[in-house]
Amino acid sequence: MNDLTNQKPPAKALPVTLKDVAKATGVSISTVSRILDERLPKSKSKSAEKVRAVAKELGYTRDVMASSLRRGGTGTIGVLVPHLTDTVMAILYEELAKAAQQSGYFTIVATCGDEVEEEEKAIESLLGRRVDGLILATSRLDSHSTEKLRRSGVPHTLVLRTDHTSNSVVGNDIHGGYIATRHLIDLGHTRIGIVAGPSYSSNSLGRTEGYKNALTQAGIAFEQSLCIESRFDFESGENAGRTLLSLPDRPTAIFAVTDNLALGVISAAKEFKLTPGTDFALVGYNDTPLANMLPTPISSVHIPLDFIAYKAVDLLFGDKTGEIVEIMPSLIPRHSSIYYKV
Asked: Do domains 74-169+306-326 and 173-304 have the same CATH topology?
């Protein structure tokens, strides 16, 4: 008998399956599945060692998505967010947990930062814990994660961001960016900077588009030097604010596409001995609790995270596919903008 561990992988386009490994090793599919299940204690028997060696040689990789579906429901929903240190994401998760509980589900959360590879690993980890579906606040336009979920038939809903294909519950970001900028224009500002967020995120792109639309409607030319792409973290907002406020002809107003970025702008402004509401106008987005608690309360665009969470859970196990629910935002004006008029 030939040594099966020295066999070359079969030349075929389809992925290697448990059936292929079972056939090559002469054991049952269920035995192969049990040996290769990383969640179970690792057997050190000769048979198990042989199965693992053959699986590696053939190039077998476990399909977490498919195996999760095969095992049936567990009454849990996996929630994936970039960072729980982000106030919006922390509040969103709490609201999702409440909405899920009302529907008889328990939630577990995972974080993945802002990297595509980490997002994919986190999704596999959640599915490996037998969740019945996923709610993702991480969808990137340059990621294939949701495409894989659709192909594997995994129920999922996107929140705050959309890939324009999966079920999604989002704020109307174009309108939100428009009303934030229009507010500043109505106060007399014509030189308005924007901390625009990352280009891989649908919400930052939408808010930037709304900013541009408001400028165009008011007959104000868009200036690339006033549009600073950033990440979503505080430090990125600080760097972007520093760039805008150090311009020879600095903007009299700044729109930051999240409150977190607006806080970064305030930090940068201190370096120039500038204060929002006194030396320049500032508008944020998401209307987080902190926005109204600062020494200079921040004007911000409000979106109802509780309703977004409710709709996300509602869509997750519904019959509809590809539905995008847009929630209209509203502007909450505060000291950071309304007391500084040009």
From this structure: yes
